[in-house]
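User: For a benchmark we're assembling, each entry needs the component sequences followed by a predicted structure for the full assembly. Here are entry 17's components. Please fill in the structure.
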Amino acid sequence: MAALRLTAEALAARRGDRTVFEDVSFSIGPGDVLAVTGPNGAGKSTLLRIVAGLLAPARGSIVLDPAPDAGRGVAVHYLGHLEALKPAFTIAENLAFWRRLYGGAGDLDEALEDVGLGGLAHLPVGRLSAGQKRRVAIARLLVIDRPIWLLDEPTTALDAAAEATLGRLIERHRTCGGLVLAAIHRPLPVDPTATIVLGKAAA
Amino acid sequence: MIAALAAVAGQTARLQLRTGGGALVGLIFFLTVVTIIPFGVGPDLNLLSRIGPAILWIGALLATLLGLDRLFQDDRSDGSLDLLHLSGHPLELIVLAKAAGHWLATGLPLVVAAPFLGLLLAIEPVALGAVTLTLLAGTPALTLVGTVGAALTTALGRGGLLIAVLVLPFAIPVLIFGVSAASSVIVGPAPFLPPFLILVALSLVSAVVAAVAGAAALRSGLD
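Assistant: Structure for entry 17:
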């Protein structure tokens, strides 16, 4: 993985005529885990969506160095509140689809084994519990090899064991030189390099 | 890139076939429309065979609209739309791939069924071929115009009827040239080729328009 550096300068976000947050700056490099905390509505998800490129910031800029030719989108993997899995398809079909679209090279069975769903690849996603769906979405992080993980409350619906697993996977990702930006309420199962607290001005 | 877009088209088609029986419901709807019209018009075979192409075209047009509302709405509600945005491929091509997948699952079965339904309307063999050919060239345009409607109504909860209201006016040119090409074989003396080529052109133009307008609509719907 190339030595990527993600830098945000003086970001501000607006929702309608309300300023959600302003003057958020950070810079993370290989192996860094940045935690974003704050009360509900403080703009944690908004910040992640801005970094992903799904929303435009009201002010400020985000720079990725070295910048990929095809834009920031090809460097990030966004795991939002929703798992983006089709209930009618099996776990394997869902993951294989995203792998083909994103052009990843990860092994499906290995990734499912990592998140504790080994041998369940043939099950339709519609039959899974919320926590299991979350695990499949985490397995997608492994199948698709992208350097920047944007995790929006990744531990939602996960049990203690899965949370520990996620911690191990994040550790593995950072030792490979990956970057992680996570919006969290509860402490992450790993020690973040830095923490941004949003929403103090708005409160 | 090609493999990625083929994956999108394939997933859309299989989703359409597997959930809610997209192709089957569309076909049954098509069959229903085509069979009830003779009951209303009466058993005048000459009249039926003359208006047969128009009946098949209107049936195909209405059947094409079925299932379009879910084309992007499902992706939005399960979060897939965000990941489609971030795939690194142009959103325009993804919209086209989704339209292609939708057409394969819903439009193509209508084209295949048209010759058999045409028999119910006493359409002559040569005209049957002509109608089927015009449907093959024209239904992509219907799906593509519908794709723009689907993209526009993605952010709305229930867009089904709104799509029909939005899309039907823009489907009129396709209907006119499709029916006139098919009818020219039966009634004459107008030649088949000019309206047919315009129909093909409409499909090509709507592919470009659907890609650009659909992607723009999806982008503006991000929040």
